[in-house]
Design brief:
Layout (H helix, E strand, L loop, with lengths): L15 H50 L7 E5 L3 E6 L12 E4 L5 E3 L3 E4 L10 E6 L4 E6 L5 E3 L1
Antiparallel strand pairs: 1-2, 1-5, 2-3, 4-6, 6-7, 7-8
């Protein structure tokens, strides 16, 4: 039986050392990519949470200024969600008008958790700093008596 293959010293393929080096480089690149992706996702979730809180406050304030439903409007910030409500406070609100916005996972919101806006003027008696954080970063939203939000 004759062989159809012509074996030559120069046609050996890759050595074990070359394969180990290439696999090591691939693992290094993947490890760096996963770390970068997780950092990006974490900061992106923080930005999304911040935008959700700001837009909720603005929405409630605009409804109060426009005297929508002849009522005051407010925002309640819970651990996992933001609730825009119609009424003088969260406990006595009209449940039919609630808008619930879910915060991204891993977000912590600190400081006061309820802000209510007066009809027509859109002013509020609740002022202060809202801290929004995750494991790595923190953003501050300062709300003054006119309902103006200042990023810190």
């Amino acid at each position: 039986m004759t062989s159809h293959f012509n074996y030559n010293k120069h046609n050996r393929g890759f050595s074990l050392a070359e394969l180990v080096i290439v696999i090591g480089i691939i693992i290094l690149i993947l490890g760096t990519s996963v770390f970068s992706y997780n950092s990006f996702r974490s900061y992106n979730n923080l930005e999304i949470a911040s935008a959700t809180v700001v837009e909720s406050i603005r929405y409630a304030q605009n409804n109060a200024r426009q005297v929508n439903g002849d009522s005051m409007w407010g925002v309640k910030i819970n651990a996992t969600e933001v609730v825009i409500f119609k009424g003088e406070n969260y406990e006595s609100r009209n449940l039919n008008n609630d808008k619930v916005l879910v915060l991204p996972p891993g977000i912590t919101v600190g400081s006061f958790n309820e802000i209510v806006f007066e009809k027509v003027s859109g002013s509020t008696g609740t002022t202060g700093l809202i801290n929004i954080s995750n494991n790595n970063d923190e953003l501050g939203l300062n709300v003054n008596s006119w309902g103006t939000i200042i990023y810190e």
